[in-house]
Amino acid sequence: MKLLLTLCLSLLPAFVTAETISNKDEKAAETIEALGQPLYSPFTERYLLDEVKNLRQQLADARVELTEKIVTREIEVASKAMTYATDTVTYFFYLIAGASTLLVLIGWNSLRDIKERVGNFANDEIRRITASYEERLDKLESELHKKSRHIARAQEEIELTNEIHSLWLKASQENTPQSKIAIYDQILQLRPDDVEALTYKADSALLLGQSQWAHSLANRALDIDPDNSHALYQRACAYSESGSPEEALRDLAEAIERSDSLRLQAGKDSSFEPLRNDQRFIDMVVLPENPAD
Fold first, then answer.
1. Which residues form a coiled coil (predicted)?
2. Is 11's pLDDT higher than 60?
3. Residue 234: count of CB within 10 angstroms of its CB
4. Phi, psi (5° rounding) for residue 8?
């Protein structure tokens, strides 16, 4: 009875802590639901990028550590196997020596004949065992080379990611579209299939009034990722500015279907100024209460 009471008292703090955490999660969910607009800011973006960088670095370190442990274990297994083979051959020689002595005593064959037979058999067995372990060691060496190349590629990817991460931070600090485009071009040189860089470059092209250029960049991004809502939104902006309302409304509807938060952004975006009086556009977006906004 006393043991049961002690166990209940020890579990009580864990139950209270779990209930408190659940209450905090519910309050956080209610606060998020009550938000009127997204909490996007350069500081939030930089924090998220730093967190992604740390996670990738930790993942790479974990891979390297795991590889080292696997290699160490495989070498230990090979060493133990070689020891076992050596002991087996030694005991085999002892057994043959005893059997040879017995056969000499009963006159089955001469000592020289027995010695030659034992020697040939032992040599054949040693060659077989040696060949087997040489094959295993070759496979182990091949695996080590593959893992070394994988680690080298992972290290190169980490360095590339760090460089791209620093370029994104630099782009967030630039104030002019031309400066941002120059940085996005550097990112695309390092990683040509970076959809995010293509869409942000298209956004900067729209700010410069280059709707055709923005349209081409958005198409490149959609060729890589056809379901990218940001690329669809940028192409809709390009269509609107170039006087193609039907195509603009089509792409905007598809982008909003994939990301509902674009309703509010589209309602404030100056690229859709030609569509302000179109009822389909009005029904699709969330217009600001104060037109000056």
1. 45-72, 123-157
2. no
3. 29
4. -65, -40
